[in-house]
Design goal:
Blueprint: H1 13-18, H2 22-30, H3 41-54, H4 58-69, H5 76-84, H6 94-109, H7 114-124, H8 126-148
Helix pairs in contact: 3-4, 3-5, 3-6, 3-8, 6-7, 6-8, 7-8
């Protein structure tokens, strides 16, 4: 589990649970999308945070907020908006609002309207849209895992309550 741990920290509880089954653990990490793909770190983290917040997956949201939030330039206003806001929240750029719109629409309908697809493809390109859809789906699965397992938040993870509505 060494490649997925952080110096000075025990491996994440989710990783320890999945590692009980070597096959599941390998498949889970084989599907990961935390590498440098077609999105910036900030774009990727906005999507992950929003999908986790929509699914009330505080465990995963809190891990990403603690590990990636600052590096991705997500301050308190943006983190709160991933939980309580929408695409019209004033902290989002036009491109970021499109990402929030994708998260919201795909979570409601498990689909993307032709209009939203066109706008996403125009702005980000076809390959980035494919990555965005995979990211939404993967973190919806992660949300189901952490919620279904009723994982308690990591002691160092951020909590929804730290970021009340504006």
């Amino acid at each position: 589990m060494a490649p997925v741990t952080q110096p000075g920290r025990e491996p994440l509880l989710l990783f320890r649970v999945l590692a009980r089954d070597e096959r599941l653990f390998a498949r889970f990490f084989g599907a990961g999308l935390l590498d440098r793909g077609h999105l910036t770190l900030r774009q990727r983290e906005i999507v992950i945070h929003r999908i986790c917040a929509l699914n009330r997956a505080e465990y995963e949201w809190g891990v990403h907020a603690a590990i990636f939030g600052e590096r991705a330039g997500l301050g308190p206003q943006e983190l709160a908006a991933t939980i309580h806001g929408d695409a019209a929240s004033p902290c989002w750029t036009a491109d970021e609002a499109l990402l929030i719109e994708l998260c919201d629409e795909s979570s409601r309908a498990a689909a993307v309207s032709p209009d939203l697809w066109r706008r996403l493809e125009t702005r980000f390109g076809e390959l980035a849209v494919l990555e965005l859809l995979m990211l939404c789906g993967f973190y919806r699965t992660v949300s189901l895992l952490v919620n279904g397992l009723a994982l308690p938040c990591e002691s160092w993870g951020r909590r929804f309550a730290e970021f009340p509505p504006a």
